[in-house]
Design goal:
By secondary structure, the chain is α+β, with helices and mostly antiparallel strands. The protein contains seven helices and 28 strands. It is elongated and about 105 Å long.
Length: 493
């Protein structure tokens, strides 16, 4: 995230907007350059601290992490490749005189052992290991389908006729995994690629709508946005009625709420039991909280450095490479405060020469700063970002009994931000040609102070003003939920 963006936004109001043309009106720009203006607004609402009404839209649309869903689709699906190298459970096993007793000797004398697995995972020649890796066997033949299982024939890998596999390795819950493959000279067989069936994921778009009215007399208040592109230094200007700005602010707030808190409403058979006034189904997709893997949600009563370290290692271990462990944590104010204090305590354990916490000169000195990034061992890096909705007492009404603040203010939402194939792990999904649609229903006045002054002024209603309507069909994709997590603060009883 480019922090220089925070200093390049200026918002101010004027009664007039001398020198600005109708073509620069926000409404017209939304109609003529919707994607460009949507990105600018995402950066403004997400990056300017005084107007920080949305965060997820900023780190998705504002940073270019957007994908388009074809216009004919409501759902979007993707495949998640996880656990490509994994252990496969043994469903059944047989051998000569098999009885699974402590005196049994499966594989003794190079005799074959049959094992049944739930999927076709190994090829002929694969050397597999049991839960105790001292016991290894070679797959002799390609797995054969047997009902909903696959039957494999294996022999003890080292070829010693006096060796056998401990029968306890075949009991319920035991597994096998591939080590490597081994073949004879002039062999014709070969192992198969260690495929894992991709785990299918799906979510769906939510259609969001909002409208607000502008009276004729209120249309004279103007808001000017001066936005400087931090990469080019180029300035752009937009203006619109002040009430429209307030409407847009609420619009982006509502979208962020949807991306965080919405709950998937399709039943297991794909139907929806929620209907609108037209008697058509209302589709709601899953937001960020619902997409985080339940196994990665953990309660805590006291934040410590070891708590966060262990949590991030759990999210990284065997999932992310050493160079792929960059995380962002969305926190309430209390969570950010505690994060700073725990790093401050860690820093106090070291002897440092500090020049970064002291600013100014002479009699005008200031002291202080806030930790926002922590570099841990094994390539893990964590940056915290304020997430104002966790502090919002209107929507988080369970309060801490001591501080009187929402307990969610101590929560931390983690997700890895290392790109996958050039794409962010968290992305906004939008329906083709259906993001931030905007249109006007005009009455006595239309945008741009266009007054109805003659009987030839054809308008759609008799109201003394006009109405702005907005619609967007969009959703959120957390591509790999296994590397995201939620630390939930719990009040000690």
């Amino acid at each position: 995230m480019n922090n220089t963006l925070l200093n390049n936004l200026q918002l101010y109001t004027k009664k007039t907007a001398v020198g600005l043309s109708d073509e620069q009106m926000l409404t017209n720009l939304m109609l003529t350059k919707p994607h460009q203006v949507s990105t600018v607004l995402s950066q403004i609402f997400g990056g300017y601290k005084g107007e920080q009404v949305q965060v997820l839209d900023f780190i998705t649309r504002g940073l270019g992490n957007v994908e388009t869903v074809p216009i004919t689709n409501t759902e979007y699906t993707w495949n998640l490749d996880i656990d490509m190298d994994r252990a496969i459970p043994i469903l059944k096993a047989e051998w000569q005189g098999s009885s699974i007793t402590s005196t049994d000797t499966p594989g003794l004398g190079n005799t074959p052992i049959s094992i049944w697995l739930p999927e076709k995972f190994f090829g002929p020649g694969a050397v597999i290991a049991f839960d105790n890796r001292d016991y290894q066997a070679r797959v002799q033949y390609e797995g054969e389908p047997d009902g909903d299982m696959y039957r494999y024939v294996v022999v003890v890998a080292n070829g010693d006729p006096s060796k056998y596999i401990d029968p306890s390795m075949f009991s319920a819950g035991k597994k096998v995994s591939r080590l490597f493959s081994a073949y004879e000279e002039g062999s014709e067989q070969a192992d198969i690629v260690n495929y894992s069936s991709p785990f299918p994921m799906k979510n769906k778009l939510t259609t969001l709508r909002l409208h607000w009215g502008i009276t004729r007399t209120a249309a004279t208040d103007k808001l000017i946005i001066e936005y400087t592109d931090p990469s080019t230094g180029r300035k752009s200007y937009m203006w619109e009625d002040y009430q429209n700005w307030k409407g847009l602010k609420q619009w982006y707030q509502m979208k962020d709420f949807a991306h965080v808190f919405s709950q998937y409403n399709s039943l297991s058979n794909g139907t929806v039991n929620l209907f609108g006034s037209t008697n058509r189904p209302v589709h709601i997709g899953a937001g960020l909280l619902e997409q985080i893997a339940p196994a990665n949600t953990k309660g805590y009563t006291k934040m410590t450095s070891s708590l966060i370290e262990d949590f991030l290692y759990d999210l990284s271990y065997n999932k992310l490479g050493m160079s792929e462990r960059r995380f962002m944590a969305l926190c309430g104010e209390m969570g950010m405060r505690q994060f700073h204090y725990l790093l401050q305590d860690k820093a106090a354990a070291y002897t440092t020469v500090d020049t970064k916490f002291i600013n100014g000169e002479g009699q005008n000195l200031s002291f202080g700063g806030q930790f926002r990034t922590w570099k841990l061992l094994n390539g893990i890096e964590l940056t915290v970002m304020h997430f104002p909705w966790l502090d919002n007492a209107t929507h988080n009404r369970t309060l801490d009994p001591i501080y009187g603040r929402p307990i969610t203010s101590w929560d931390m939402l983690f997700f890895d931000i290392t790109p996958r194939d050039g794409k962010s792990n968290i992305r906004k999904m939008i329906k083709e040609k259906s993001e931030n649609l905007i249109w006007t229903v005009a009455g006595s006045i239309a945008p741009g102070s266009n007054m109805a002054k003659s009987q030839n002024s054809i308008r759609s209603n008799g109201g003394d003003g006009y109405t702005i309507n907005m619609l967007s069909e969009e959703g959120l994709m957390l591509e790999d939920p296994t590397t995201s997590g939620w630390l939930k603060y719990q009040v000690e009883s």
